[in-house]
Every structure is written in C-alpha cells, then in structure tokens.
Amino acid sequence: MESVKNSGEQEAGPGERGLAHLWRGYACSLAPERLFLSRPVVQASLGTRHGLLLLEGGQVYSFGVSPWKQPPSPGPRPPALEPSLSGRRVVSVATGSSHCGAVTEDGGVHMWGANGAGQCGLAGPASIPNPTPVALLLPGGPAHSAPVLELALGHAHSLALSAQREVWAWGRGPQLGLLGSTPSSGGSASSSGGSASPSGGPAPSWRPRRVEHLAGRHVLQVACGSAHSLALVRCQGPRGGGRGPGAPLDACGRCHQLLYTMTDREDHVIISDSHYCPLGVELTEEGEEPRPRGASPARSLRTSPSKPRLPEGRAAETPLGVAAPAGEGMAPPPVVAPPPAGADPAPGVGDGAASPYPHEDAVREYLRRLSDHALIEPLGHANMEPSDHALIEPLSHAHMELSGDAQLEPLSHAHIENPDHAQTQQTATVELSSEPAPPGHGSPLPAPPPGPAHHPGFALNSLVTSCASAVGERVASTYEALSLKKMMHYYLSSSGGPAGCGAPGCRGGAALEESMQARKSSSTGDIRAEEAEGRRRLSLPGLLSQVSPRLLRKLGRPRGPAVALTQLGGCIPGSQELLPPLQTEVWSWGHGGRGQLGHGDHLARLQPLCIKSLNNKEVVRVAAGDHHSVALTAGSQVFSWGSNSSGQLGHMESPTTVPRLAKFSEGIRVWDVAAGGSHSVFVADGDCVQPILYYSGRQEQGEEGEEEGEEGEEKAGVYTQQPVLLPFCMNLGYTSSVCAGGGRCLSLSDRNVMGFIAGLHEVASAERRFYCRLTAIKTGALRPLLEAESLSPTLGAVLLGLLQTLVGGFSLLYTLTGQHSASLTSALRRGRDLQTLLLLNHAHIFLDAYRQYCTYLGNFHVMGGFQALSKPALEVFGKTLDPLLRLSESPEEGPASDHLMALFALPLGHLGEYGRLLLKLATCYEVSSSEYQRLHSACSQFEALTLHLKKRRKEAEYTHHFWKSFPGKMTDSLRRPGRRLVCESSNKALSLLNASRFSVNWFILFSDALVHAQFSTHHVFPLATLWVEPISEENSEQYGLKVISPEETFTLLACSPIEKAKWLRAINQTVDLALGGAGPDPVTLSPGAGQKAEPPISRTASYTFHKDARLREATYEGRWLAGRPHGRGVLKWPDGRIYTGSFKMGLEDGYGEFVSPTKNAGIQEQYLGHWKEGRMHGAGTYRYSSGEVYEGSFRDGVRHGHGMLRSGRLTSSSPSVFIGRWVADRKAGYGVYDDITRGEKYMGVYQENQRQGSGVIVTQFGLYYEGTFKDNKMGGTGVLVAEDDTTYEGEFSEDWTLYGKGVLTMPNGDYLEGSFSGEWGSGLKISGTYHKPFDPERRRPPPLGRLCVCAEDKWPSVFEECWAALGCMAPGQGPPSRAWEGIAVALTASRRHLQDSPEVMTRSMSRTLESLEVIPQHSGPITMERYTKIRLYLIKACDSPLHPLGRLLEVLVAVYRMTYVGVGANRRLLPQAVSEIKSYLDRLFTIVRFLFPDLPEEGGVIPETPSSPLPQEKTSSPGSGPPAPHSPRPVRVVSSSSLLLPLLLPRLYPPLFTLYALCGEQEEDLYWDCVLRLNRQPDLALLAFLGVLQKFWPSSIPVSLPLLGENQQILSTTKDACFASAVETLQQISTTFTPSDKLKVIQLTFEEITQEVQSLLRADFLWSMDDLFPVFLYVVLRARIRNLGSEVRLIEDLMDPCLQHGEHGIMFTTLKACYYQIQHEKIT
Fold first, then answer.
1. Tens digit of pLDDT for each residue in 1435-1464?
2. pLDDT average, residue stretch 925-940
3. Neighbour tally for 1100: CB within 10 Å
4. Which one of 354, 598, 767, 900 is most buried, by most CB atoms within 10 A?
5. What is the C-alpha separation between 1351 and 1474, in angstroms, rounded?
C-alpha cells in the first residue's frame, strides 16, 4: 500500500494481505490450516472436495481432490497453479460440487471438471481435465458473445451473470430455469440440442442459454445450490413505466396484465394490488414454441374473475414433482395424470361439457370414503378405486394451478434423495401414478404420525379447506351447496372423532403457521386478502353463514396509517450508479424438496419465482448450500430456509420452507455469509473492530464426512442449535470474506498494516452499527408514530407537510447509510483501498444529504412541530416514553418534545464520526503523500459541515424560543419554516427617525426579511431588496442608518455607536447570506466578531410592489441597483401584462418587450423595441389587438417619427399600408399610403391624419394625379393623366371630380379649354372651346412634377433619426467625435444584445461589428490611402443594420420600394424616382462629410498616387500610345455618385429599372424588332450592310480548341463569329448596377474591338469615329441586349458629371448613337 508510514515497501507483502485459512467444523480445539502462497489471495471458492484460489495478478490455484485431472491423484492435492490459465488475467473463480469455472478480464469463461450433465458447457466428454473456453453466444452469431461478470456453480448446473446483468444457464435440471428444460417422460432431447441420457432421464442442456424469465431485470448476484438456484435482483421501480400508447392506464407496461384486480365476494369487493410482472416467457405445452409473456393462448378459461385465463384441456406432461411457476395471479401449467387403463371416466370430466372439475356428487362421495378409510390408516394406490383417480386428477390439477397461493398443508412430500436423480423425483400436493406404487414409496394421502393429536377431524378440516381454496370457481360453487359447519358435523359424527383438538402436540397450529408463511412468501395474491380468506369462506354467497359478513369485515379490516407520509425508503439523487441498491428481490428456482426455494412448499419451480416474504428486507447478498439458502440484509440480519437437518439455518424454528431469521446474540452484526453442504459460516462485527466468525451446522468428523452424502446428513450427529462463535477467529487477523463448500470453510484475512486495515474495518463497522441504529429508530419509533390516529388532526396541514418532508429527509439518510454500508462491505471483500471509499471520492453526496436534513429538522422545530408531536407520542409510547428514551439515549427527565427532538437529531451526530474516521485513516500515510492530502481535505469538509450544522441548530433553537416568548397574531403571521431570527430591538436599541412621541417601533431582523412592527401593524422588507448605508456622524450626533427598499426609504437611529455597528454588520451579513453569498454566519453578532461583509450594491432579486400606483401588485424579478430595478429583468402585473427587458433606475429603459392582454381571449398586444424613462421611445414594433402592426419610431409612448403601419389583412375590409412621418401618434408630413382595396397609392403630405397639401396619386388602372389636397380630398389645382396620355389640368373639388376651369388635352394634341364638372370616368360636362392646332408640337401636355413634393422634402424624418443617432440635435450640429463615440457605444450594446441569440448573430456579423467598433481616423488630410479606407468603412457600415448609416440605408430602401413597387410602378413616376435617388445621395454625402470633415466637397479632387491609377482617369484614347511626357498628374474626383451610388443603387435597382422599362416601352419594342431582323444575316453580310470597311473584316478566327497556329476560315454563311469576345463583354452590361460599372463594360468592349483589329492589321491603329461606329454598331447588334434603351437612359441620368466630357462620355455617346441608329435602320 503506497505511502504507508515506515512500511519500507510500496505494498504489503504476501504475508500480510490475502491470507487463506481452511478448516472444518466448530470444535474448540480446531486449528485452521494456513495455505501458504506466493501472493495475496483475493478470492476463494470451495466445492465438495476441492477448491480454487484467485491470487493477486490473476493467477488461479486449485487444491483438493480432482478426479478429472490427468493423471488423477490418489488423494487431496496442495494448491497448484492452473497452467492453462497462464497469460490470462482472471478476475473471478467459482466451484461446483465437482467442476470449476473462471472469468477472465475480458469477460471470457473457462470451465473444467465433471461434465456428465453438461455443466461445463461442452458437449461430449464426461469430464474436462483443463480449463476450456465457453462462449455465451448472442443472437448475432458466433462472433458475438456476452461478456461475463461472475459465475455460480451447483452440482449439475452452472449460472453466469453477464455484463448486461442477464443470467445464463447450462447443465441439467429444473434449476436451470430455461424454457424447454422440463424433463419429458420419454426422455427426448432438450431444445438445446443435447441427447437424452442413457438412463432415460432428462437430456443435459450443455450450451449456455439465457434465462428468459429474468430478461429485462437487473440481476445483481447469482448463487447455486446442489439442485436449486438463487438470484438477487434489483427492484423494477414504479409500476406502469414503459406503458405503450394503447395500453390502459391500469395495466402493466410490460406484461399488459391488470395492476389492480377486483373479486366480487358477497356484498363487497376485494381489491388486490399484488400484481407480479414476470418479464419473461411462459412455458407452453410440449412441442410448442415459447410464448411471450402476455400473449393469450387460443383456448383458455378463467379460474376466477380476478385471475388471468388458464390453458384449457390437458396440459404439458410435466412430472408432478416439478410445478412450473407463473407470474402473479398466473397459475402454472396444470399436471393431469392419465387414469388407469380400463377405468371409467369420472362424471364431469369426460362429458360434453369438458369441465376439468369434478361433479358435486363425486366430491361428496369422495369425502365420505376419505373420512371412513383414508384418515384411519395409510392407503396406497393399490387399494384406490379407479373412480378415485378420475376424481383426484382434477383436484391435483387445480391444486397445482394455484400452487402459488400456497395451500394450508401439502398432502405429500416425496423428498429428493440424490441430486443426480433429482429429475426423476417428484414432489406434489397429491401424488398420482397410473401404476400401483411399490411399498415404501409415497402414498396418495400421507399417514399422519401416530399420536392422539392426529385424528380424522383435523385432517378433514384441512383437506376440505385446502380443496375449497384450490380448485377454483367450479369446486367453490360445488362447495357452496354444503355449509362448512354442517359438513364437518356430519363427517365428525360419522367417524366418531372429537370436534376439535386442543392438545399441545396438535399439528394444526404448525400447519396453519406454515400455510400463512407460505401465503406471505407466495408471489400470487394479496397478503391481507389471503389472511382474511378463511373468514370470508364462511360467508360465501349462497351459504347460511352463522356470522354476519359486515361484522367479519369490520373485525378483519386492518387499521392503516392516519396519514400518507413519505415512505421510509428513498433514493439519493445522482447516487444510483455509485451505491449498491437496497430495494432488491430474491428469486429462486429448481428443486424444492427440502424447502430450499423459500416459497412455503416443497414444490419444484422450472422458472425463477420471486420470494415475496423477502421483499423490502433490503437483501444485499445471497448464498446457497446443498439444500438450504441464506440471505443477508443491509441491516446485518440473516434469513435462512431449506434443509435444517444439521442446524445449518442458524435456528430451530419451523417450518423451514420460508425465510426465517437466524438467531444471533444481541449486538452481533453479520456482514458476510457462506453456505456449504450442511453448514453455514458468518462474518460479523463484535465488540471490537476485528471481525469475528460464527458457525452453524454439523460438526465434521473428518474427510470421510464428505463421502456420507445425504445418508450421512440424516444420521444423528453433533450439530449446532444456533450459530456458535469460532474461538480461533481472533487469530486469523482481519477477515475480509468467507466461503464454504462440502464440509469445509475457508476465510481470507489481512494483517493490520500500520492501522490501515483496521481503519477500513472500523469505518465499515461504524457505518453498519449506525445503520442498525437508524433501522431501530425507523421501526421502533417512526412507524408507530406515523400510524397514530391522532397525528393528522393534532398537527394540522402545515406541520403535517413539514413532518412529511422531515421523514423524507430521514428516509434519504437512512437509504444513503444502508447503501454506503453495503458499499463498504463489498469493498472489504475485494478492494480494501482508498479507491473504493465513497466518503473520500464522492463526499458531496453525504454533505448535501446531511445539510438538507438539518434544514428540514430546523424548519419543523421552528414551527413548534415537536411540541405538537408530543400528544401522539404519548398515545403511542405511553407516559414513560420508554421506547423513545431507549432509542434516543437521552436522560429520563424532560418533556416529550425534547426526547423527540433528540431522536430526530440523532443522525446529525454521525457526521462528526465520518471526520474522525477519515482523520484516523489519514494518519496511516505520510503527510506529504497525495492520499494524506485527500483524506485530510475530506475530513476538513465533514468537520466544517459539523460545525456549520451546529450553528444552524442553534439558530433554529433561538428562533423557536423567540416565537415561544412573543406569542400573538402578528408573530404567528410572521412565522415561516425557513425563517430564522438574527436579532431584534425589543430592548429599544433601535428607533425610527422623526417618530412620534408615543409610537412603538419594533425592528426584527430575520434571515430573509427586516420587519418593522408598530402596534398591531407591521411592514416586511425582504432582505434581497434591502440596502443599508451608515449616516455620517459629523453633522449630527445621531447614530443613524439609512435603509433603502424599493418603495420606501427611512432612517434608523441606534442608541450607541456599538449598537449602530452591530445592526449595520448584522443587516449586511444577513443580506449577503440571503443573496447566496459566502459571508459569515448570521448568528455571530458580537462586536468585532467576523469579517465585515458588504452585500453587492447591484444584485439579482425578486420583489412585489404594493404602494406604487403604476406597479401595484406587480412582481419584478431581475437586476437591482440601490433599491431600484436596474439592468435586465421581468416585470409582471396581476392582469397579465409583462415587460421583459432593460431597466434604469426603476423605469423601463433600453430594449425590451411588453405584452398586454385584451378582453378577447387569446389576443394580446405586443411591443418590442426601445424604451426611455418608462415609455416607448425609439425604434420598435407594436402589434395591436386589431391586427395592425406598426414598425417605426416612438417618443413618450406614442408613435412619433418615421414609421410604417400595416392595418388589416388581405381578407379584411380595409387593408392598407402607410409609411411616413408621425407626430404625436398622428400622420403628419410626407408619407406614402397604399390602399390595396381601392388600388390607389398616395405619395404626399399629411396633416392630422389627413391628406393636406401637395401629393401624387397613382392607381392600378394607370391614372396619375398630382396636385393639392384639402381635407383628405383632391381640391384645388391639379394634373390628371390617363393611361392613353389624355391629360387634364385644372380645378378639382373631390377625388377624381373635375370642377372649374381647366384644359383637357387629347393624345393627338387636340385640347378643350373651358369649365368642367363631373367625375372622371363617369361622364363630364364641358363648357368651353375645342382647339385643333395645325402643329401638334405647339401644344404639348404640361410637364409633370411641378405640383408634387420635391425630392429634397421627402422623408425628412428618416434623416433626422439618423442625425439623432449620431448625437446631433440638428443636421450637421455638434462635434464629430461625439458622433463616433455614440456609434461605438451603440454597436457594442447591439452586439452584446445579439450574443444571446446565436441563430441571429452569425460569425461574419460578429467580426463585422467588431471591426466597426474601432473608430477610424476621421481627421487630417485626405489621401488616396485614407479615401480607400473611408470607402471600405462605408461599405461595412452600410451592410450592418446596427450601424446608423446601415440603418439609414435600410430604411431608405424600404421607403423607395414602398413608393415605386406595385401600384407605384407607373412610368410617369420615373423622373421623381431618379430625383429621389439623387436627393438620397446628396443628403448621405452630407452625413459622410460630417463624420469625415476633411473629405473634399462635391467635385473636389484628391491627388492620385502613381501606384493606383484608375482606368477612367486615362487621358489617352485606345490605341493612342503612351501619354505625353509632361502630362498632368492624375487626380481622383470626389463626388456622391462615385462614393455612395455603388452602395445605394444595387439595392434600388429593381424598382428603378422597372420604371425605365415601362417608360421607354414603345422605343424598346421598335429597337428589339430591328435587332431580331438584322441578326438573321450572317457575319459578312451584316458587316457589309453596316458599311464596315473590309480591312476590318476578320478572314479567319481561332478554333475553340486550337492546335498551334490553327484557324478557322470565315465563310459567307458564318454567323456570330466575328468580334465574339467584344460581344460577350458588352453583354455584361445587363449584369451591372451603377453607371460607372456599365461605363467600364463599354470601355472594355472598345478595347476588345481595338485588340482584334490590331491583330488583324498587325500594326498600331488609331480609330476615327467614321471607322469605329460601324464596327461598334455590329457588336451592339450581335450582343442582343434586351432593354438597351433603359440601360442608356439610366447611365445618362445617373452618370457622374465629371465623366460626361471624358473618354467615357465619348464611348457612352457612341453606344447611345448605336441605339438610336438601330431604331431608325431601314432594311431593304
């Protein structure tokens, strides 16, 4: 062991650890034999005459008699290494009667030894001399095998527990628990593929198979006896889990049986909840496939309404001694023996009704003969009449079907004489045979032992009662006709026997006791219902009962607990995988002739069956001897059952067919057990730390004792009446485990290594002792107390709930202690090191459990729970309270409440014991070692918690005394379970400033609140929202404290500086603790004690307002600052209003969401946006209950600024969209209103929600109006233009109504001038003059745009908001540095806000925002380098909507699309659309120049650096050669178009280009028609037609994939081959957006033409316009640009003025000329 002081070695030597001692019997002079080995032994296992030892390192040694070895040894062998296992690390070994097994580290299994029954898992040889691998094959194939954890071996069978906690079995016998392992009469091969034995017995199942009946359960351990098997299984937990979607709620989720069954008995219903889920597969008839549990057979019938259906007709040919078990309420397959040859079928059996039950007359006749003959002398089958066979078959059939109900007295026991012939022996309730039984064998009805106690009366009563309870409804209905009392009187009078038996030796008492034990152990039926069954039979329907059924029910009704409290047995959260379970079950199967199965009978079980009497016993280990079984509980109790011929059960009580407690002296705590052939050995805690050994069983005389077998067991010999102490145990050292086999015992022990081994044993012993004490408290005090009838009315609802919580905490501690005790015991058996110590590795589990329990205890004590609990305690325990005094170990003096308090507080005292034991273990290590540090750290944690819990209990006691000292309504209203008193001012140490003379002010500081009491009123100030500040004493001599709460601020005056410091420290410390801080304990209030702890001024807390009118009854939860909500939080009103967002000094300020319910259910109003000083202020979105949605700006809680209102839906009556300016919640200023229902769009000025002033209206029918509006109508001068260009200019009075003077101009130029009246489109009245001019050009329609809102006056609120975001009160006012600071702060806040929404905040957006937060250089001279950085910064800013410029650009795009998309796509709006874009550029450029003041004005220049020339600034034309040597230095012209148009125009391009296309639609059609016609000609013909000089005609062009120097000749039919590269370049003009990009495309096209001509002429060439124009015209025609006119007009309107007269201007003029030339080209 590492780091052990002065050990001199890293680990203990082989002479100190893992010592093995072997002995037999229990004689006082016995001296155990020491087995000397080279390494410590970590596990041992004993067979009948051999054994295995597993050494440290994985080596396996065998010893004893091994007849399978080659060559066989004549006698016992000393321990010798198994060479076949060398090189494999073995982790577990096991032995059977005559075979062995080992499990390797990888889960592999190796078997060797006797194999006559296939118990070694191999087919063929009768013995296996050396370890041979055995695979547990999974359904996946040979490559898939189940890894194994441990083995258990019996006489002729083997069990394996896999890593999946499944049980696998192989060998022979019912102890396998396998489907199809039932021995057949014909000796046919089993389903495993084995052949029948030569003797005709059952065939072995040599191949390992899974025990399907335990499938789905978590098996913890397996054990094997000679012919039976045991399994320790974890309980399944709550029922109903895993229920399918279609299963009923009251059905099991696994087997689909009913969880609750109801049986109608007389005038009442018996409800049973004893459902048992087998989770396996049912046995079927021979030859059938196994049926999944829950599947119904084709033909079935029910024995009663509460039981599932049973198979109908003849069942499987199962021997009578082996009854296959079934689940809860599920009878095993019936056994029916065929009648003798020639016998007549009994009535009711062979008739047409096919009833499996006898007729009433047959029952009466059979009982008569039975009373006359069978009960006087033993009868054999030879003198039984044939009709008796037919009668008794159904009886045995029904009896075995209901064997799970455990009848009162088995009628025959045919014991198993030899395990080898176990399959041929039979144990049944009624033994039947088709042939006469030979003398000396079992008879059909056993002969009672001679004596006066056994007479016909008792036998008849037992038989009739058992028959009536067994045969089901049919026999019960037959029995109904006969009164039980009359029936017994009749038969007793005829036989002459006495009416009853009162002799002491009467077997009736034992039979009844065994029957009751069997019922309680049975897995079928409710226990209470079974105990009352005898009483209910006297009042079955149809019987003339002598006792009233209601009286029976009243007397038999059990008294349940008065209140349903937490069950004593919990689960520690998070510890299920760390700690062993205590809620376990023990399952058994196999032969049961000696009662070793524990089900209360001697029947065999083919499948595992749960021993219900061991449920809730917390079994943690099982062991199996040859014919007996032992179970060890976590409470150190030992249950044993089975054969007790040699006293191996540890008690002499009967019956032995059910588990009973072994008899140990008081104070002996057993923690390990082992079972041998006819003995048991126990390891227990004694008076000292060193374990002691107990032995129970036969005293072995020598080696020959093992040869005696069963015959020797039956002989009279020396054996123990109860477990005896082995005197030599103290000489063995510290025993860690024991094993037994045959007649021998073996122990493994350790020497104490510097106290470490003793320390581990002391830890485990202390935990077991503590658990036993908790068990005594649970059973002796808590359960009786909780079952008291006066508990609930005495305590009341509040204390009852606290008691339930306290008992639940005790349950958790109880369970944790038991699990820890089992874990420590398991660690002693195998590990014995620090790695297995949960106290060290998972201390938080224990610390949390004890801390929580102390809180529960204090809460119950504070509320006066123990005083209220005194009355029920006196009723339960009497006035002397002796049980409480004995359990709590408290003095006799004192009230009952003190004893109860001491009893419930007793578990807390064990916490210090943990620290002491850990410190004791730490002393075994060097101080510098890591083990010492870990142990010392854990010890410190337990000691610190011990001190902390003591303080907590003092707090509770102090608080309880306060409530007791100041009773009254006010204090009762302040009493809370979790509230603790810190200090109070009853000594008038504290007063209120400016209080009246006669006022009474009492201040009480609790752990969660400060209370100010005045007469009959009081105010509670929660500490989480309380701030206290000391007031300086310089200005006044008063010692004041300023107390700030959310709704009130007041000043406290202390009587002295000491009191002031005391209260200041107490309040601050208590507030810090209430906030979850780590300040000192609040009970330490003496001056100068503890460190000064000031709670944070900013904190998170919850508070409900009561006084504030706006926030009355509203609850706020979030951040606070100095008594005001400040930061993120949630505010909820009682009427459903909720605000979630930012606060500032108590008001909503920042970004937040507000939700307000409306009167209509399910409809609410919602606002999401910015707030300021408690009102909506800034950008936000408001969703109204009417369906309207407003997105825009708010001010002082109303719509103010730019915003968009969507009202209605497409299916509603008046859907509309308005975008524009709002003032004080009304439309005012420029805006756009799109009325979808009327098909109109208004673009103009609003005032007071009405159209007032200049405006434009366009309709979906093409009408265009511009003019003035008045009172929301067209009024005054205006211009109206129809779709066909008919124009009216004049006066209007209503919408679309002409009234007054005007001029109506026709599309052909004619016009009417005069007075008009009437609505447009419905007929006009005209009084005027018609004019038809000779020259139509002289009378043109008036130009549009004169009466509409100019572009500079549109959307002023949009730009005003941008200036406001930059910190400017007016455009251009303020320093730029303030604007940059505002931008950086806004971006940082926005980025932090979006970090909470990762689905919105992408990584690229985060990087962009981070780069924008850096303020660029915005002052100093502008160079080309700085200009480039400015341009890149503007690109990023405009791409981010969180930047003010990006937000501005986003809004401009929205309003532009809103204006010119849809109905607004009117060709007459093109001039306004272009002007609006130019206005955007001008105003944007103003903002940019404000941010960068040194940027030149519009048209200013920046000197171009030589390294960065721009193509558009080249002064030479294509092909003109290098520039002159003294050419001027190029410069960059700064303009809004070059800097901002590339950012704006791509976003506005779709609606703008649509207007261009609509405006030039006629010209575009004419142009496109010419392009299509001219492109039909081949290249040479088109070049000739266009007048291109032949020297510019390409004679050949390169092939698409040319070889070197290979060209393609231009033919007369060649098309689209000449100037192809230039054509492709010009086609790219449609993919660009800005005029500068389009001009670059034109320039590249000219360059492509020039290069091709120069390659053709092979010389430099200077173009003239006469030569260039035809060639460029050819390229334009071949490019086939669809809307070239629109492209030309867009370039012309938005081109930078500085480019109009340069090279780009000439090229653009050439393109424009080509467009007009194509329109007027004439093709002849």
1. 988 888 888 999 999 999 999 999 999 888
2. 91
3. 15
4. 598
5. 9
